[in-house]
Structures are given as structure tokens and as C-alpha cells.
Amino acid sequence: MTTVAFIGGNYVHDGRSVPGGVAVRDGRIVAVGDEATVREAAGVSAEVVDTTGKLVSAGFIDAHLHPAMGGRELVQCDLTEASSAEDTLGRIAAYAAAHPELPWIEGGGWTMDHFERGVPSKELLDRIVPDRPVLLVNRDHHASWANSAALKVAAIDAHTPDPQDGRIERNHDGEPQGTLHEGAAALVRRHAPGVTVRSLYDGLMRGQERASRYGITGWQDALLSQPAVSVDAVDAYRVALDRGTLYSRVVGAIFWDRSRGLDQIPDIIDRTKKVGSEHRAWFRAGAVKIVVDGVMESFTASLSKPYSDGCGHATENRGLSLVDAAMLREAVTELDRAGLQVHFHALGDQAVTDALDAVERARAATGSRVRHHLAHLQVVQEHDIPRFAQLDVIANLQPLWACHEAAMDELTIPFLPRGFAERQYPFGDLMRSGARLAAGSDWPVSDIDPLAGIHVAVNRVAPGARAGAPVFLPEQRIPLGAAWEAYTSGSAYVNGWEKESGRLAVGFRADLVVLDRDPFAGHPTEIADTAVESTWVEGRRVYSAQR
Q1: Could you tell me the pLDDT band of residue 526, with boundaries at 50, 70 and 90?
Q2: Are 506 and 456 in contact (CB under 8 A)?
Q3: Which of 85, 131, 527, 542 has the fewest beta carbons under 10 Å from its own?
């Protein structure tokens, strides 16, 4: 019988910090409260974790994570730490030189604002890797950078039409420039070396280790497969379950194939059954990921009004609606009827409206309360804000993006239609309207650290920003308690775990995190300085900063 007592400091209760601790026995919480109560419940033989000056919380649950993808990219050409275009190119050249045996150079994490207009050219890659194909996804995973060799393998030239769900960036003469947006990247990716179950499993293990380091004890895997990739992470999870190496709780989202229609739903249902019911407590594929649009920085997010040219003049581009609105309504209704949750990617206001319309249609047709959720929500029009609560749709926030940075100030705000910049990431409006909030990181798109995301949700400035830095839409800040619950009980609700995870309550699973300080007791601008000391799953320590 394993018993642990966390005593001496504070713990999180109903979105606030209170003095006391937690007792754990056999993977469950058996007491929460003052020290005497906790010691009595734990017994004299319990392991004691001194939390003096610290904070105990339910483990963080990331509602939008890509652990296998992110972990796999860590051992490819990893550009996430590059500080400039020159640094990016230097890292690519070094990786290529260190791996002469690789037929392709793959990886990614490059930052759009390091390159003019956010679109690096094939010639930059040709100068450093002229002899092999190169395909590198950008940080947000909505564009890829290819060299001439990769474009040649895929037979992409001036005469190649844009796919329905993507765009080939072109030079003035119509020749491919080297950047491939959204589904256009699949034209090249299908020719690259295949992803294996082994590589996805190894990535999942690295992603899980990274998550536990930041206090994350569960998540929703927001994309179990990718276009033009023949294997998916369901098989990697099954290997982990068979080997007993998955110690995080997971719900996975199966990708909606935009090249198909409603005929794919039986296949999706079959795939949800690939992992047996005996593993359901740890993993189930109960969601479907529908990517409704692209991203603002590449002008592929779907807007109700045209993008600006940067000088205040409207263009003809309203972004990409990657799924026809009528098809979306039918698909969501049928998925809802099958009891499958839909995890929408929706950044632009038109994408948000289309997704909410689809849920409204499904609610009317089936009467169900399946827990659909919209992720990202960069621009939401005022008339759509109350619909989240009315339709019981969860707002899945990625708070780290809601601040002034180069991608926002240089690649987004100057090109938005009039009045749209003021509608970005409306966390405060959603909260005040009664919407249920969940939160996630979208790692490896952005930092996996929940405390960094919470910091931005509360402050609307980036962690480490200079004193007096401009606050991004300060009226959309939310209280620390609300942000904390979004990353714990809110995300637990998304995954259907609200009766066993996401809170410190007797009978709940002992999935916990111990922090080196109590951010509720400090200044809001210091939230991101908080560090994880240890992470526990069912009362077992899975990460310790001291080890």
C-alpha cells in the first residue's frame, strides 16, 4: 500500500490557494485539508513530501497537445530554438552535415517572422543542401519549406494547380517559391520517407517525458495522424499500453480527411476501437479533429471579410475554408450521432461561425450533449460569443499566443480587416458570457509549459516581457483562478474525466503537481517564474526536479 502525505504548504481549491495538504493512498486522494486531517488519513508510515512555501495542485491537463509529433521532431532537424534566419540556416546546414546518410532532411520549427513576409525561399535551402530533398514544417505546422530538390521530386512547377485545401507560394513568374501552405505540403510529404510506428512511439515517449517535466498528467492528443502519412499515433499508444510505458491519461482525436466525405465515418468508428476497452482508463480515441481553416500569419485563416494588403486596402482573399460549411454541418451531425466528440481547429471568425453553426445543427438533430470544443479562437465576432454557452461548446484556449510578439505585430495586425484586431483571443468575453473554458499549449507549435500559458492568460503579456510592455487587449485578461481551472478541471471536462481528475478531492485520482512556490500569493507578473518540483500520477512520482 503506497501512501503519501503532502503537507506544510498550500493547495488549490476551487480556483484559489488555501493552507493545507493532501493525503494519497493506492493512487487515490483520501484526504484534503489541514495538516492534522492529512496526517491522520495518511498514517505514520506514509512518505511525507514537505510543501512548505510551495503549492500542490491537480496535475495540469493539456487540451490540445501533439506529443508524438513533437517528440519525433526533437530528434529531426529541430529549429525551434533558432533566433534568426541566419541561425536557422546554420542549424539546417549543421544537421545535414551531421547526417550524410539521410536521403531527406526533415524536421521543422522555423519561425515565420525571421523571414521576409514570413515565407522563406527554396534558394536559401538550395545554397546549403543542394543534393537532397529538404522539407521543414514551420512552428505553427501550417506551412512547410521545401528546397528545389524536394519540389522536383513532387513534380511541383509553375503549372501545378493549388490543391483545394492549400496554396503554393509563387514567385512573380508563377514558379513555386519554396513555401507550401496547408494541404500543399502534402504534395511533397507523400514522397518523403514514411513515418514508422517505432518513430512515433519513440516520439511519444519523449513527448510524455517533456509533459511530465511541466506538471502535465494528461492531455488530448489533437491529431493522431497527418495527411499523406500512412501510420498514426493510435498504434504508438497501443505499443506503449502493451509495454506499460504510458503513465499519462489520454484522449486522442482522429483526423478528418478533407479529401473524403461522410463515407469515412465508419472507418473513423472502427479506428476508435483499435485499442481495447481494458486500456480505456489510460487511452481512448474518442474525438475527431476537423481543421476548419488555416492561420492568420499566412492569410489562410477563414475570415468573414477580406484581409488587408497592409496599407488598409481590402484584398480579395478571405483565407481558406478547408471544409465546406454544408459538409461540415452534415459531418458534425453524423459524428455527434455516433457519440464522437469534435475537436475543431478554428482561428478565423468565419471558421468559428461555421463550426458553431455545425454544432447547432447537430444539437437540433440529435439532442445529444457530446462535448464538442473549438480550439484557438483567434478572432471571434461579438454575436458568436454567447453561442458557446448556449450550445454548451467548450472554448479550448491556447493562451500563450494572446500577447504582443512579432507574429502578432508584424504578420497579423497590419493585415486584418478593420475592427478585427480588437476581437482577438477574447478570453474575458468568453468567460463573462458563461462559456466553459479549457486550455492547452499546441506543443510543439508553442511552449508546452502550462504556467507560461496561464501567465499570458492573466497578464496578456509574454513571459519575460520588459516592465511596462504593452498589454494586449487588457479587457480580455482573466483571473488566475479561471486560467488555472481551464488547465485542470476545464480540460478534465473536455476529456470526460471531471468525476475523477482535474481537482483535489477525496476519491479522485492522485494525479498531482508540486510547484516550487505559490503563484496565487505572488505578483501576477511573476507567474511564469514558477517551476515544477515534482509530478505524480496515481500517487507515483513520475518527475522530480531534484533527480
Answers
A1: very high
A2: no
A3: 131
